[in-house]
Amino acid sequence: MITSFDPEVLEKTEAILDEDLIESGVNIALVADLAGHIVSHSRAKHCNHDVYSLAALAAGNFGAVNAMAKIVGEDEFSLLFHKGEDENLHFSKISDEFLLITTFGNDVSLGFLRLKISEAIERIRGLW
User: Fold this and answer.
1) What pLDDT band is residue 39 in, cutting at 50, 70 and 90?
2) Are 25 and 110 in contact (CB under 8 A)?
3) Which of 47, 56, 75, 84 could staple 36 via S-S, CB 3.0–4.6 A?
4) Helix (H, G, I), strand (E, B) or coil at 8
């Protein structure tokens, strides 16, 4: 279990978010714990969404959906996707304690995004 991060690990985590996700067209990429506290984040220059509220609400949403998973006999749903008219959300578990939350427009395909997220998560797990 991770209890703290040193500045070098946080800097490298943010670099992974930048290189793997923001440079691929993602608007926001953030790592948060399951209580919604942000560990690391990056965003495209044009994006000014409130990442703190987003992280808190995403963590709550993830918890609610996992409670629903148990009702239908699943241990968990390890990723969530919400499609909007212009902006989409994707949440994926990094570990038992942390989520990777991304927002992206319709110009980024979900398949491509899922590949880039998978690569970023593996790099983050290797770093941690």
Assistant:
1) very high
2) no
3) 56
4) helix
CA–CA dist 25, 108 (Å, integer): 6
Cα 78 to Cα 87: distance, rounded to the nearest angstrom: 21
Q: What is the pTM of this model?
A: 0.88
Instruction: Determine what percent of the chain is predicted with pLDDT higher than 90.
Output: 81
Could you tell me where the DSSP H helices lie in 17-109?
A: 51-71
* pLDDT of the residue at 51: 95
Q: Angle at CA 99, nearest 5°, toward 95 and 103?
A: 150
d(CA 34, CA 27): 21
Distance of alpha carbon 125 from alpha carbon 71, whole angstroms: 29
- On whether the CB atoms of residues 112 and 24 are closer than 8 A, the answer is yes
Tell how far CA 94 is from the center of its chain: 8
Structure tokens at 46: 């044009």
